Amino acid sequence: MDPLPNPSPLATRLRNTLLRYHGIADGEWRVAKKTKDATVWRKPSEEFSGYLYKAEGVVEDVTNRIVDHIRPGPYRLDWDSLMTSMDILETFEENCCVMRYTTAGQLWNIIAPREFVDFSYTTTYEDGLLTCGISLDYGEVRPHFVRGFNHPCGWFCVPLKDCPSHSLLTGYIQTELRGMLPQSAVDTAMSSTLANFYSDLKKALKS
């Protein structure tokens, strides 16, 4: 088990990685799923043998409120159907923490419940916000869970220029679920999970 990292260099590295993903040319992505709420693309990850996913959609709300629903805090558990528990293990400053969370089984439990321990960081980006995270090898794995690993992930949320009460939400996710899983099941689950994330988030913001 690793000790907790120094948060400042990790936060800088994480932010720079997400900015690099955000600059990847459109032609490098392949559409994985399209719904009325979001489009999901993917490309091979540079971090592991799976995919880096990009999801994008317009959300009818202001940037700060959307990000408050996504980042670690009281809102996330209320609406995210995939997340079953969340504990803040360490808070470094207001926008920076380590959290442990668990996820429900997926695809008729072909994918069993997972546990993650993530470093989370939220910062400004253009006129909006970036909230990002990466998994840490920290803490004992609880029984009945497989420990998954999130390679650098994050959500850019910026107000639309011509309609500031709406925001463009763009996410980059690359989750290594680990355990004995068929890759095709993982790929199906990831695309659907990201599309559902947008519809669930929109419902939560309207309620």
Automatic annotation (TrEMBL):
UniProt cross-references to SMART domains, sorted A to Z: START
Which terms does the UniProt entry file under GO BP? cholesterol import; cholesterol transport involved in cholesterol storage; intracellular cholesterol transport
Q: Which Gene Ontology cellular component terms are annotated?
A: cytosol; endoplasmic reticulum
In terms of PROSITE patterns, this protein maps to: START
Specify the superkingdom.
Answer: Eukaryota
- START domain span: 29-207
Q: Which GO terms describe its molecular function?
A: cholesterol binding; cholesterol transfer activity
Per its UniProt record, what SUPFAM superfamilies does this chain match? Bet v1-like
UniProt-recorded name of the protein = STAR4 protein
State the organism named in the record. Answer: Piprites chloris (Wing-barred manakin)
